[in-house]
C-alpha cells in the first residue's frame, strides 16, 4: 500500500487548512493510499542553528526534537503533501521553521553527494489564501516548498491553489475541492 505524508502547516488547528486536509485524507483512503498527518502545532521543532554538523555528518542533525520524526516520515512516504495557508505569499512561520531544518537534507547532496531518500516518490502543495486571487500569490510557497522536494529527489507533481477563503470557506466549496483533490492524487499516481 502506498503512503502519503501530509504536513499541515496552519497555525489554526481547525481552520480551512484542517478542513481541506480532512477531505484529502478521505480521498486518499478511497484510492487505497494510507495517509499520515503531521500537524505543525503538535511538533516541537527548533530553528536551524547553522552549526555545520550536517555538513560533516551525513543525514544527521545535532538538534534532538520532533524534526527527527519528520525526517523518518520523509523517508517512508511515497507522496509528500504540504498544506499551508499563505502568509505574505509564503508558508506560515511554523512551517518555514520546518523547511529551514531541511538544510540537513540539502547537505546530504551538497556535502556528501548522496541522496537522503531511496524510495521514489512525488510531492504536492496545497496553498490556501484568504485574499482573492492576484498575480504571484503563491510564488513564495511554491519556491520554498519546491526546493524541499528537489532536495528530497521528488518532483513537484501538483500545486493546488485556493484563493478567497476569507469570503468563501473550504466547507462552502466541498464539491470543487474534492474534484481538485482527485486531480492532485491522479497527478501523484501518474
From TrEMBL:
Which Pfam families does the record match to this protein? FMN_red (PF03358)
Keywords for this entry? Flavoprotein, FMN
Report the SUPFAM superfamilies cross-referenced here: Flavoproteins (SSF52218)
Q: Which InterPro entries match?
A: Flavoprotein-like_sf, FMN_Rdtase-like_dom, ISF_SsuE-like
Which Gene3D superfamilies does the UniProt record give? 3.40.50.360
Q: Which residues form the NADPH-dependent FMN reductase-like domain?
A: 4-129
Name of protein: Flavodoxin family protein
